[in-house]
């Protein structure tokens, strides 16, 4: 699995005219699943997102997690994180999980974060979404469960 986690003051997702998910301070997470992902990747991703120490403490150091600051998480499905542009200019998405499998893995991550007591909002899987955010930092972290932690 791959994710891009951004520290935000607020973020929301709009599909058509409907706000499908919105959060205040916390993390905006773009999440993609590969064809090789399984339960271990879900567990690793949930742990990394929840425990990522990118929020500042009273000394201004990045030492607190979204759990520590009681922040929220907006998770947006993003298969394009597996876009491969090594050959040519048009991305190949052959490494991305097929939609039904990707959706199941996405939902497992959302449930895992909620089970840790986090407020979790989502976009709509396979929809065209307008993602709105007001970044804090900017602080943007890449997470890949296929790379050694």
Keywords, separated by commas or semicolons:
two-stranded antiparallel ribbon; 149 residues; alpha/beta; single chain; 8 strands
Can you walk through the features of this model?
The protein is globular and about 45 Å long. It has a single domain (2-140), classed as D-tyrosyl-trna(Tyr) Deacylase, Chain: A, CATH 3.50.80.10. It has helices at residues 39-51, 99-115; strands at residues 2-15, 18-23, 26-32, 55-56, 62-64, 72-77, 119-122, 130-144. Helix content is 20%, strand content 38%. The protein is built from two helices and eight strands; from the N terminus they run βββαβββαββ. The longest helix is centred in the last third of the chain and has 17 residues, at 99-115. A hairpin with a 5-residue loop joins strand 4 and strand 5. The protein is α/β, with parallel strands linked by helices. The strands form two sheets. Strands 1, 2, 3, 6, 7 and 8 form a six-stranded mixed sheet that branches. It has a two-stranded antiparallel ribbon with strand order 4-5.
């Amino acid at each position: 699995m791959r994710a891009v986690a951004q520290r935000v003051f607020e973020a929301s997702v709009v599909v058509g005219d409907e706000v499908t998910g919105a959060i205040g301070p916390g993390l905006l997470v773009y999440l993609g699943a590969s064809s090789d992902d399984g339960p271990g990747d879900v567990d690793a991703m949930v742990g990394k997102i929840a425990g990522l120490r990118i929020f500042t403490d009273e000394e201004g150091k990045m030492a607190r997690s979204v759990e520590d600051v009681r922040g929220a998480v907006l998770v947006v499905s993003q298969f394009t994180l597996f876009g491969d542009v090594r050959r040519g200019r048009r991305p190949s998405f052959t490494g991305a999980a097929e939609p039904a499998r990707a959706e199941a893995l996405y939902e497992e991550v959302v449930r895992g974060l909620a089970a840790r007591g986090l407020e979790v909002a989502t976009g709509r899987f396979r929809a065209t979404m307008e993602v709105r955010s007001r970044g804090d930092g900017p602080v943007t972290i890449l997470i890949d469960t296929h790379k050694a932690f």
